[in-house]
């Protein structure tokens, strides 16, 4: 399914409601272990979706940067593989509606990403309308994955892991703040990123991220490796937090992105320890 160029955030959100994402019949066939694996993949889809768009925003401000171009290619290929093979995972048949809708959203996202990257390469500047649609498609893809996560848990009666959930939530909060920052730093698209309907402000995201770090520090204090990773995250967070929240043209985007991605990698390590 490919959507027209005039697609808006509201139209994308309506698509999620009208293609069955929220009306799948609950099933008891999916097991907690199957749900756990599906949730893991869906969480990664959220992360890579943000990272791909973030790399695009950086590339739009540095069109000749081959490393950024390769970053977009590699992350978009990773995202493609995860989304396309999602339906092959055990238990996925019981979430056919959610998965097929997420795959349709990804098709639009992928098409918009390719078009926007091509515009930067060929003409040196973006079509602001298409960048706005890419931003909307990214937010819808993240939301679609979140709803699928909720459904997988509901269908399987998977018990929550508050520590793991806090790690994953922190990663998404950080990636959202980083992507907002990159969009505001890119002079050609700085007016595009406004956030999605109902999305927390960057100040609220920052406060929630800091609260999660405090909670995780208490929960993981007896685990040396986890505590060490959290200390490293907190150190980097303290260094860039004010820049993320209080954007000015004097900030250095490269440093903010570098530290943000290092924190994402540390959160990935924490996730792997659970």
How does this structure look, described?
The chain starts with 8 loop residues before the first helix and ends with a helix. Helix 6 runs antiparallel to helix 9 and helix 7 (202-219) packs antiparallel against helix 8. The protein is mostly helical. The longest helix is centred in the first third of the chain and has 30 residues, at 32-61. It has 9 helices and no strands. It has 2 domains: 1-159, Up-down Bundle (Four Helix Bundle (Hemerythrin (Met), subunit A)), CATH 1.20.120; 161-190 and 199-274.
Keywords for this structure?
disordered N terminus; 274 residues; 9 helices; Four Helix Bundle (Hemerythrin (Met), subunit A); mainly alpha
Short structural description:
This protein has 274 residues and is mostly helical. It has helices at residues 9-18, 32-61, 66-85, 96-123, 128-156, 162-185, 202-219, 224-245, 253-273. The protein has two domains: 1-159, Four Helix Bundle (Hemerythrin (Met), subunit A) (Up-down Bundle), CATH 1.20.120; 161-190 and 199-274.
């Amino acid at each position: 399914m490919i959507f027209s160029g005039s697609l808006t955030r509201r139209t994308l959100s309506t698509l999620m409601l009208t293609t069955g994402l929220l009306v799948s019949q609950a099933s008891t066939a999916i097991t907690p272990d199957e749900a756990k694996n599906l949730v893991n993949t869906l969480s990664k889809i959220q992360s890579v979706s943000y990272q791909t768009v973030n790399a695009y925003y950086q590339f739009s401000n540095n069109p000749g940067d081959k490393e950024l171009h390769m970053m977009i290619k590699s992350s978009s290929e990773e995202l493609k593989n995860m989304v396309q093979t999602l339906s092959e995972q055990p238990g996925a048949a019981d979430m056919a509606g959610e998965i097929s809708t997420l795959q349709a959203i990804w098709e639009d996202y992928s098409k918009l990403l390719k078009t926007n990257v091509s515009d930067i390469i060929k003409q040196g500047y973006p079509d602001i309308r298409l960048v706005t649609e890419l931003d909307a498609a990214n937010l819808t893809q993240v939301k679609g994955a979140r709803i699928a996560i909720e459904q997988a848990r509901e269908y399987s009666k998977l018990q929550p892991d508050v520590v793991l959930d806090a790690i994953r939530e922190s990663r998404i909060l950080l990636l959202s703040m980083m992507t907002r920052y990159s969009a505001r730093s890119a002079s050609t698209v700085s007016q595009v990123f406004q956030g999605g309907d109902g999305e927390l402000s960057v100040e609220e995201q920052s406060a929630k991220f800091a609260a999660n770090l405090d909670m995780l520090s208490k929960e993981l204090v007896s685990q040396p490796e986890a505590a060490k990773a959290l200390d490293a995250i907190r150190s980097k967070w303290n260094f860039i937090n004010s820049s993320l929240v209080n954007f000015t043209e004097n900030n250095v985007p490269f440093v903010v992105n570098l530290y943000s991605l290092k924190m994402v990698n540390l959160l990935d390590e924490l996730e792997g320890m659970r």
